[in-house]
Amino acid sequence: MTTQQFGASPVDAVELNALDPSDISALDADTQQLIQRRRDVMGPAYRLVYTDPLRPVRALGTKIVDVNGDEYLDAYNNVPSIGHNHPRVVEAVTRQLSLLNTNTRYLCSDIIDYAEQLTATHGPELRNVMFTCTGSESNDLAMRMARHVTGGTGVIVSNHAYHGNTRDVSGWSPSSGGGWTQRADVRLVPPPDTFRTTASAVAEEFADQVAACIADLADDGIALAAMIIDPLFSSDGLYADRTSLTAAAEVVYRAGGLVISDEVQPGFGRTGDAMWGHQRWNLDADIATMGKPMGNGLPIGGVVAKPSVMSAFGSDVPYFNTFGGENVPVAAAQAVLDVIREENLMANSADKGAQLLAGMRASLQRAGRPSDVRGAGLYLGVEFVTDLDTKTPDPLIASAVVNGMRRRRVLISVVGPYANVLKVRPPLVFSQSDVDRFLTEFDHVIREL
């Protein structure tokens, strides 16, 4: 199959890089048996990444050790945002678990303390928070709030967005995978693609496209509830232009809708410029949602909103989540927030991300490999194309790099509707030696191509 064929229609990034369970003959007998046992008991929906599956047994910081004792550099996982098994998180969780782990029906000062500190990082407008278990729940709750407050039901998301896997949220997560069908109350807007559109035009074009979505909803008798945006457009292929969102937000407000900033990917200092994506983009968000990195792997998420939104919803709709806001996950989240501040991880993200960006760009230029390197802080993308004139997506090269890096014991992935964009998203504690190791192995893989 040629890359030109891939360029004609979207490619499922998970499927492109998933192990084909019928093609495991090259793997050792023990791994083959484990794959078969997994499929027998867990069914066919789960996917394994890499042509040679990783079998991790322990991790610390930015390193993962596999069953053979080999150490891998993790440049992919944002869930352990401050590093795998960070001692501060381990200690906080262990201590709290020995004391109390109950829910928000009781008056617990530790939850209030954390809520005050978390909302303070968002600024003066977003002052109320509700806790969930996951980013999916956070986005589900945020849209419930938007619909309740506005009376509308329409949703605008980017073309290849992913916002979660509840029944409602998956309905406006077009990158969920095969079988996704666009609902009548959902409109898709192309992301602000600065690789194919000039920076001066991208903001106006994006705002015009959002306006067209609103008009199309209205033609069908559907009022807008909200536009929900990951400010990094992570699943769309990672676009970090600073100017693309404010004009579109104004269009949404004029139509009576709310703006929801999905901070699962860009939040907690990952961009290096601000604690939250909506701050980096000067986006006047009504609601911001959080998930995966919040508790460094423990199940906690959050919805931070303007008091006017939270009051209008909460006065009519009592909310309770048995596990949302439990003491133990809150202890983990408090430790994450403390470490980000005390270890100055936002500045580290900016510094190490800039080095990775420049280093990858230099390797690709030396090799003459047509591509675009972009991103912010410790969230970087490399888009591979067949040539810089047509900019036809090249997913086969991207897949070759991912598996080449895995063979050299560095973990990355791919993203985007054509699965041709490398996703480099390491923990925020990425060190100078980690950067040096990554760039050495990346340069080797690119030269091998």
UniProtKB/TrEMBL annotation:
Signal peptide: none
Annotated keywords: Aminotransferase, Pyridoxal phosphate, Transferase
CDD domains xref list: OAT_like (cd00610)
Pfam families for the chain: Aminotran_3 (PF00202)
GO molecular-function term, one example from the UniProt record: pyridoxal phosphate binding
PANTHER family according to UniProt: ALANINE--GLYOXYLATE AMINOTRANSFERASE 2-LIKE, PTHR45688
Similarity comment text for this entry: Belongs to the class-III pyridoxal-phosphate-dependent aminotransferase family.
Designated name of the protein: Aspartate aminotransferase family protein
Organism ancestry: Bacteria, Bacillati, Actinomycetota, Actinomycetes, Mycobacteriales
